[in-house]
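Entry 14. Ran structure prediction on the chain below.
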Amino acid sequence: MRTLPLLVLAACTAAKDDTAAPAAPFGMPLVEDGQLYAGVARVDITPTNFETYTDINGNHSFDGCITDPAASRTGCDEPFEDLDGDGRFDGVWIAGFGSGRAAQGVHDPITVTAVVLSLNGEYVSLVGVDALGVLENRIRDTRDRLAADGFDRDRIVISSSHSHQGPDTAGIYGIDEDLISGIYPPFVESIPEAIYDAVATASADMVAVSPTQGAVHMSDLDPAFNGSPFGGTNPDPSVDGGLNDIRDPVIVADLVLSIALDGPEGRVATIVNASGHPEVVGDENSELSADYVGYTRDYLEANHGGLTVFLSGALGGMQSSLGATLPVIDEAGNRVLDTDGNPTWLDDSGPGAKWEFARTWGTLVAQASEAALTDTTPWSSLRVRNSEFLIPVDNASFKLAFQVGLLDTPDEYVIQDTSCPNYGVDHDLFGCIPAASWVIELGPVTFGTAPGELMPELFWGVPEEDAMADASLRTADRRWVQFDADCADVPFEDCKDTAGSVGDCDCLKHHATPYRVTDDAALTTIEAMLPGTYKAPIGVANAYCGYIVPEPDYNTYVSVLTDDGDHYEETNSCSGSFAPLVLNAFAALRE
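Output, structure tokens:
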């Protein structure tokens, strides 16, 4: 297999002020002159020259045998191109919607985009990667390499978009029944190099910029984004802010935070922070793509210039527009109305609808980003700090994936000694993964990061509504779509450790009563622990250990080996203690 080519695209090469003598690293201007500087760069990491197969039955899944190119053996139904002649299928497995979905081509580029910011001697790099989640070991190696060149390893935050249309970066989307990892080595091996190149190039091309920032909730922008239970006109009653939440209670992360950085020659960079799984193209797809994130970037870059860095938000609870209904917009981004002036609607069904749906949602997110840009307050400070912790790997799903070698993490990166609390004592514990949460203060904007898919209520909190506290009110409540009325009088604590029933109550449909994010009186929501005017989460940042579920609502029994009901997130979470660790990290950083 040949090494992937890397294409670095510098967004702006205007000369810097000669009086601001640059200091290391990479020649960035670290001067105390009260001026904000920014640089941005993009690296294309799209896989090339990978092996594909003949999808005879049209199900977008490889139904051949890994070692039978001609599909000559019984049960090996689909042949593949054996480009390197090794007799083995070396395809690119797409990360999402179950295992076995191998790529047949490329729809749009898979990229790494980095912005580097400096102000009065402080600096940070924010990096967006079109990936399911770059695992901690790859991030660690990248930070170490940057540190060797003088870039403070604690001043780089790498956020994966969590795309379900890009190559598998975890290893769990190959062929699970045959324990075939989904890792395509040339791709995952290219990511650290690409991040390094993007950060180095962006650092070397920094110019003086003026910021504009702000944040909006999509549910506040237009009633077309909300179903009738949420006060809108959308024909889908489950939609709130354009998003679905498939886990009770329905609490969406519809905030879009945006920062525009404009230099003497125009837009240098736009930073967009938004939630929602990049999965809206759906499972009937065999082409690699950045999903809606690519359309968001394309729209902003075409209309404003520069490069756009997309940073994922709170994805947990399975925040997604997949299956929703959206107002139709044309290629220019204008609403398409009927003869009476009412919105027309688009869903994701029908031939060709998937890509149009992704374009529509990506454009709507981009337009929300534009609408958010209302505050031109200059930045008086830039500050970066983090709090480290160890995530125990005690969930059956992750333990199994580690033990059979599916994950893109060699054992030497897993802490398996007494520095991992309870290692050797708790026999359910595989080891610990190093992680951290960051607080990044950029003038009036503050980001708080999490190394996984954060559920929105952990960041913003739980709505003060009666059904949150009283389970007897949940049957007809708009946020409790899947609630089992037989659970009204059953304490969730009785269901926490089972996938069965308590009396007639289906424990897999039951949730914490009262619904809450923590039982620790010393802790609160992440937003409340952050300074700043505009606050937002950055998810899947500098590690990826699955979903981050509030501990009081975590079912300890469900796993990839059991039914999961309305507790799917627990099957893909490293640990039930993940959320408390993240909350405690922010408490440690609170001032």
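Residues 185-204 form the longest helix (20 residues). Will compare against last week's run tomorrow.
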